[in-house]
Amino acid sequence: MARRSSRSSKRVLAADPGIGFSLQLTCKEKTQTDNGDIACQLCKLGDRENQLLLCDGCDRGFHSTCLRPIVFRIPSGSWLCPLCSSSHRGSITDFPLVQTKIIDFFRIQRPFDLAEGARKRRKTNSGIFLKKKSRRLLAFTPSKDPSQRLKQMASLATAMTNSGVEYSDVLTYMPGLAPRSANDASLEKGGMQVMSKEDKASYDQCKEMSRGGACPPLMVTFDSHEGFVVEADGLIKDLTIVAEYTGDVDYMSKRENDDGDSIMGLLFTESSSNDLVICPDKRGNIARFVSGINNHTREGRKKQNLKSVRFNINGKAHALLIAIRDIHKGERLYYDYNGYQHDYPTEHFV
């Protein structure tokens, strides 16, 4: 792990989702070695200069591997230590909301009529149909209050702007990365579901609502340990399509040494050279801020309320985040992004 200690090499980690600090520091004096060099405030040693980060606020040093969590990314730009950044960490309200036109940021087309959408759902959801299709995927139910939906979208716009990510609710195929033709679901070696006609109707409804500015009832907040996280801002029912995982599609072989913490597997083929991943570091949506669980602990697994499900939709692979139980307002969203399981509600999960 290489870290440069020059001031030009550092960046503000407060805008990096997934990176936070859980340290209790009180010393405001710089720790130095016997020969006057700056030492790490935590281990008190001046070795491993390639890992030493210097704070732009107080000039104190910290080894990237001494910080908790460890800083895995090479900082660029200014960087603040835990003490100097503590006054700027907390909830999303500590960050100024993005001053932008929501309709432009999310490329909203014809505003979605919630009443019209509800009538459409009531028309198709007969009692007999629900009984036969009891495990059908559900489209998300937006908040009825327009002002609350604006707050939800503003929280996402703020998180994405702070993270330097452009909003996109579709998979993107950029020059130099994997072409659209590479995403051929027929190449999958057996771990993907073909989306049914009924589930496709729910998926299409989610896309239609998103294009019209009717977002899922979700709020992006900021946690001092986990960075940007996503919380339910209303009841989300079991089997609801919460979001599609979006971003740039690329070959997994080209991203094996990528330090991004939000990469999602998309296509797994007989030849590993054809495997694809979704990279939301430049383009993406709210899915990139959903937290992953520690699947090696019982406590971590108990937090899980979503699963990432890969579907064959019109011949292309897609990854959707699906609620695996009712999720109540204020509950943080978690999923196991390392899972590859054979259960609920489909056969295979990424």
TrEMBL record:
It holds the Pfam family SET. Residues 37-87 form the PHD-type domain. GO terms for molecular function: zinc ion binding. Keywords: Chromatin regulator, Metal-binding, Zinc, Zinc-finger. SUPFAM superfamilies: FYVE/PHD zinc finger (SSF57903), SET domain (SSF82199). CDD domains: PHD_BAZ2A_like, SET_ATXR5_6-like. The keyword Metal-binding applies. InterPro entries: ATXR5/ATXR6, SET_dom, SET_dom_sf, Zinc_finger_PHD-type_CS, Znf_FYVE_PHD, Znf_PHD, Znf_PHD-finger, Znf_RING/FYVE/PHD. It comes from the Eukaryota. This is Histone-lysine N-methyltransferase. GO terms for biological process: chromatin organization. Residues 216-338 form the SET domain.
